[in-house]
């Protein structure tokens, strides 16, 4: 019996040793394997951080003030991934009154940029499905994140109208991704109008944000995830005072155009959208013309 047990033990030891050898080799050699490891860790780490955030947030109950806890908890994640975030125009957020922030939406990594610049008392609007993502859903709820049901337009619009009142009553700012979904292809999808109806109903300014394309360090399609840089530009507030619902389409177009203009010519003239964005303005030329990668990647081992 002792002999059998000993053999079994050494078999386990061998298997473990092999695993310890194979995983790092695979990680270094296979771009796809590395991509999946990094994404899995990203999701797992955030689920775990939410476990820590929940009891702290629960002391206050559901409150926008809890976004400060969530923001500070997520702040270090960019370092784990060697992503350098450079922010410009942060002074545009210095308004006493509430406002609606609108930003382009590339992937779940937007969370890193969002937590880099998120003003105090500002909550994102998110799809309802996020509420069911375990601990993350609960943390989001405690942070006062506003959930909308994208499958029921009337419901979503009702929540947005309610939000206009809440913003003014409780002095709350709101962050919306007006594309309404993630867009991995550089540049931007057409905008949905909810954010702009919201701003007009509350008579508060819209503050656009452009986040540069992740193409140099991240591509879901190519299963590529390395280190890199991201530039975030906060644009000047766009007033809505005196505008009525009929002005919403024009406001939407104006804001989108301002973001596209910034995206094509901003970032020191290198552009924000990378090489294959559907906007063929002054895009970064050549391999390192854009926002190329650097920084320490903890995952590189
Ligand atoms: C520690 C761990 C913590 C973890 C933390 C995690 C943080 C997580 C961060 C989370 C980040 C998560 C990020 C995410 O989850 S992003 C996904 C969810 N976000 C959005 O979808 C926001 C953008 N969407 C919109 O604005 C849409 O318009 C909505 C959703 C409102 C409706 O969309 P829908 O597709 O159903 O309909 P439609 O757009 O064709 O509109 C129909 C008509 O209604 C008009 N209309 C629209 N609105 C209003 C209004 N208010 N008053 C009056 N009218 C309004 C509109 O103009 C149009 O009319 P017309 O123009 O054609 O005549
Ligand atoms: C017990 C249930 C366990 C569920 C496990 C879920 C694991 C996910 C855990 C953490 C994820 C953290 C990142 C969440 C924040 C990113 C929000 C986001 O980017 O939502 C996408 C939404 O804007 C657009 O959605 P679609 O592109 O239309 O789709």
Automatic annotation (TrEMBL):
Keywords: Acyltransferase, Lipid biosynthesis, Lipid metabolism, Membrane, Phospholipid biosynthesis, Phospholipid metabolism, Transferase, Transmembrane, Transmembrane helix. The chain crosses the membrane at residues 7-27, 39-59, 130-148. Belongs to the 1-acyl-sn-glycerol-3-phosphate acyltransferase family. Residues 262-301 are annotated as: Disordered. The keyword Transport does not apply. SMART domains: PlsC. Pfam families: Acyltransferase. Coiled coil: none annotated. Its EC number is 2.3.1.51. This is 1-acyl-sn-glycerol-3-phosphate acyltransferase. It comes from Pelusios castaneus. It catalyses: heptadecanoyl-CoA + 1-(9Z-octadecenoyl)-sn-glycero-3-phosphate = 1-(9Z)-octadecenoyl-2-heptadecanoyl-sn-glycero-3-phosphate + CoA; (11Z)-octadecenoyl-CoA + 1-(9Z-octadecenoyl)-sn-glycero-3-phosphate = 1-(9Z)-octadecenoyl-2-(11Z)-octadecenoyl-sn-glycero-3-phosphate + CoA; 1-(6Z,9Z,12Z-octadecatrienoyl)-sn-glycero-3-phosphate + (9Z)-octadecenoyl-CoA = (6Z,9Z,12Z)-octadecatrienoyl-2-(9Z)-octadecenoyl-sn-glycero-3-phosphate + CoA; 1-hexadecanoyl-sn-glycero-3-phosphate + (9Z)-octadecenoyl-CoA = 1-hexadecanoyl-2-(9Z-octadecenoyl)-sn-glycero-3-phosphate + CoA. Converts 1-acyl-sn-glycerol-3-phosphate (lysophosphatidic acid or LPA) into 1,2-diacyl-sn-glycerol-3-phosphate (phosphatidic acid or PA) by incorporating an acyl moiety at the sn-2 position of the glycerol backbone. Residues 99-214 form the Phospholipid/glycerol acyltransferase domain. The HXXXXD motif is essential for acyltransferase activity and may constitute the binding site for the phosphate moiety of the glycerol-3-phosphate. Pathway: Phospholipid metabolism; CDP-diacylglycerol biosynthesis; CDP-diacylglycerol from sn-glycerol 3-phosphate: step 2/3. One of its GO terms (biological process) is phosphatidic acid biosynthetic process. GO terms for molecular function: 1-acylglycerol-3-phosphate O-acyltransferase activity. Residues 283-301 have a biased composition (Gly residues). It comes from the Eukaryota. GO terms for cellular component: endoplasmic reticulum; membrane.
């Amino acid at each position: 019996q002792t002999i059998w047990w000993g053999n079994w033990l050494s078999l386990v030891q061998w298997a473990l040793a092999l695993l310890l050898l194979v995983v790092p080799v695979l990680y270094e050699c296979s771009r796809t394997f590395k991509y999946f490891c990094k994404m899995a860790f990203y999701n797992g780490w955030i689920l775990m951080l939410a476990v820590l955030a929940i009891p702290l947030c629960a002391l206050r109950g559901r409150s926008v003030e809890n976004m400060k806890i969530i923001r500070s908890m997520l702040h270090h994640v960019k370092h784990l991934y060697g992503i350098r975030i450079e922010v410009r125009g942060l002074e545009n957020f210095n308004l006493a009154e509430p406002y609606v922030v609108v930003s382009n939406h590339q992937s779940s990594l937007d969370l890193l940029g969002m937590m880099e610049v998120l003003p105090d008392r500002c909550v994102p609007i998110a799809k309802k499905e996020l509420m069911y993502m375990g601990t993350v859903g609960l943390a989001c709820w405690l942070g006062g994140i506003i959930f909308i049901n994208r499958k029921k337009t009337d419901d979503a619009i009702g929540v947005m109208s309610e939000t206009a009142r809440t913003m003014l009553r409780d002095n709350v700012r709101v962050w919306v991704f007006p594309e309404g979904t993630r867009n991995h292809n550089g540049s931007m999808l057409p905008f949905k109008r909810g954010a702009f109806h919201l701003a007009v109903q509350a008579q508060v300014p819209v503050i656009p944000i452009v986040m540069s394309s992740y193409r140099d360090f991240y591509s879901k399609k190519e299963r590529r995830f390395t280190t890199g840089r991201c530039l975030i530009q906060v644009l000047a507030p766009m007033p809505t005072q005196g505008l009525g619902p009929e002005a919403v389409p024009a406001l939407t177009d104006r804001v989108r155009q301002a973001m596209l203009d910034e995206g094509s010519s901003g970032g020191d003239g290198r552009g924000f959208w990378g090489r294959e964005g559907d906007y063929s303005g002054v895009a970064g030329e050549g391999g390192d013309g854009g926002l190329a990668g650097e920084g320490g990647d903890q995952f590189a081992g």
